[in-house]
Amino acid sequence: METSIIEQLDKLRYNLLKWTTIGWGIWFATIIGNNIEKGHIITIIATFIGLFSSTIWAINLINFLKLNRELKRHRKLNEALNNEVHLYNLHKSFQVGYKTVIMVTAILMFISIL
Predict the structure, then answer these.
(1) How many Å from the N-terminal Cα to the C-terminal Cα in the chain?
(2) Is residue 20 within 8 Å of residue 61, measured between CB atoms?
(3) Which residues contact 13 (CB under 8 A, 6 or more apart)?
(4) Cα 4 vs. chain centroid, distance in angstroms?
């Protein structure tokens, strides 16, 4: 079944938003949990996880901004894509990012206790 350009762009925007939020959440959580003594193996692992997730965040953020710039050029596409579903996806991505920050911080705090 062939999909329209609007459906493809909507799916692309949702995936970019999701991965941008997850990358930011993991990166931010590793910064929070990275206050363990320097040179500890957990700190080194958290640093590498933070670098990887910040790369994911940066790449998806750039692609998301490029997509938004393209959508602003086409008025009909912009009107079709900026609707209630987009607002729902924004709220959903915030929830995913918030839960990711809480979970990664909790894991790092638990590991630091050991």
Answers:
(1) 53
(2) yes
(3) 64, 67, 81, 86, 89
(4) 26
pLDDT digits (tens, 9 = 90+) for 64-109: 888 878 877 877 777 777 777 777 877 887 888 788 888 888 887 8
CA distance 40 to 49: 15
Residue 73 half-sphere exposure, CB side, CA atoms within 13 Å?
6
pTM above the 0.70 mark? no
Instruction: Looking at 74-83, list the stretches that DSSP marks H as alpha helix, in order from N- to C-terminal side.
Output: 75-81
d(CA 93, CA 87) in angstroms, rounded, equals 10
How many alpha carbons fall within 13 Å on the CB side of residue 28? 15
